[in-house]
Amino acid sequence: MQNPFGNGNDDQNNNNMIPIPPNFAVVKRADGQMRIAKVGFSWTSLIFGMLPSIFRSDWYNFLSMISIQLIMGMGISMAMGETFEVAYYIGANICRFIWAGLYNMMYFKHLFNIGYQPADQRSKQLLIENRYLSEEK
C-alpha cells in the first residue's frame, strides 16, 4: 500500500505495516503486543481531559491524573474558601492544559517501564528527538 503521509514507510520498507503519520510512533513488547500513539501535544487530552487514558486502557496514568486533580481541587478549595465542587472544576480546567502537554510523554514512559521498545528505527528516532526515550536504549 502506498503511504499517503509521505514519510517513507511504504510496504517495501516495513513488511506490510499500515501507513503511519510522521508524528506517530510504534512500540512493541516481546510477547507481540504493539501500541501506536502520537508523539507531542495531545489535543484529545485538552478537549476531553482524562478520557484518552481510559480509552487507551492506561489505568496507571488515569489514576495518577485523577489523584493530582483531586489534590489540586482540595488545595484550591482551602486557599480560596470555595466549595470543593467549584475548586475541583477550576483545578480540572487548569490541569487540562498540563495534561495536554504531558500526557503522550507520560503514556510512552509508562509503556517503556512495562517492557515496550520502539518497533522500528523511525519510531526510535522520533522518540529520541522528542526526549521520550534516551539515546542509550
Explain what the structure shows.
With 137 residues, the chain is mainly α. It has one domain (11-129). It is 55% helix and 9% strand. It contains 6 helices and 3 strands, in the order αββααααβα. The chain has helices spanning 11-14, 43-48, 51-55, 59-80, 84-113, 121-129; strands spanning 24-28, 34-38, 117-118. The chain has a 3-stranded antiparallel β-sheet. A hairpin with a 5-residue loop joins strand 1 (24-28) and strand 2 (34-38). Helix 4 (59-80) runs antiparallel to helix 5. The radius of gyration is 18 Å and the shape is elongated. The mean pLDDT is 89. Keywords: Membrane, Transmembrane, Transmembrane helix. The chain crosses the membrane at residues 62-80, 86-106.
Order of helices and strands: HEEHHHHEH
How many H/I helices? 6
Class per helix and strand makeup: mainly alpha
Whole-number count of domains? 1
Estimated share of beta-strand residues = 5-15%
Mean pLDDT score: 89
Share of residues in helices: 55-70%
Radius of gyration equals 18 Å
> How many strands, what sense, and barrel or not for the largest sheet?
3 strands, antiparallel
Distance between the termini: 31 Å
- Main sheet: which strands, in order across? 2-1-3
Q: Which residues sit in consecutive blocks of at least 5 with pLDDT less than 50?
A: none
